[in-house]
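[job 4471] stage=fold_predict status=RUNNING
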Amino acid sequence: MIGQPHRDTAALVIGGGQGLGLAIAQRLVAEGCRKLVIGGRDRTKGDRAVAALAEAGAEAAFVAVDMADAQAAIALVNAAAERMGRIDALINSAADCSRGSVLDTTPEGWDRLMNINAKGPFFALQRTAQLAVAAERPASVVNILSVNVHCGQSFLAGYSASKAALGNVTRNAANALRWKRIRVNGIACGWMNTAGEDATQRKWHGAGDDWLEKASAAQPFGQLVEPEEVAGLATYMAGPESGVMTGSIVDYDQTVIGAYQE
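[job 4471] inference complete, writing structure tokens
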């Protein structure tokens, strides 16, 4: 049975309209969170998520945001803080997964990946921290990264670089903010089964309806990572049960970094 460690948490989940972000939002509510703001690009998905969270007992709201715009990311944090009175936990889960290799990534594509995956989350974190410091309150941030921070596939050059940048932000911010009792941690997720991944596979790789079955069969545990599995780790990092844990990045995958085929 799930406990209630987040019964006093006011949370902002960026990218909470679908996939992992939504799973984290749902887990927060299951653990007692009643004040919740969802940030995202798609209002239809956001409104649907808010309705589901409200049905589960949360005072939830959706705020549209383009994380490629740093000022919009800051405005989202301000709007969430005004609505809830404070932000105890920030989850940075929004991301752009566009493809591009070192040979064909365009300057425009590079900038968009960096803006959405690193710059926007950085300024959302910064504003959350500024508000917490001004109010002399503790806070927690969880950045959703990718195992691609360690290298990445050849067609994920810009994406991998942007997530690696956010990985450095995670540790740098954790070091800078620890004396203010603001904790910053990250999760480097592996290949995950989400609606967004389904769209990505079809758009960029010409995948058919059986792509998930084939991909799962090729994995050590016979499945891709499921959002609900990661959600518990994210809410643990964001809540009081993780104590003084800060600056940690956990690889959540079934591939062991550094291992070679025997």
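[job 4471] summary: The chain has eight helices and seven strands.
[job 4471] exit 0
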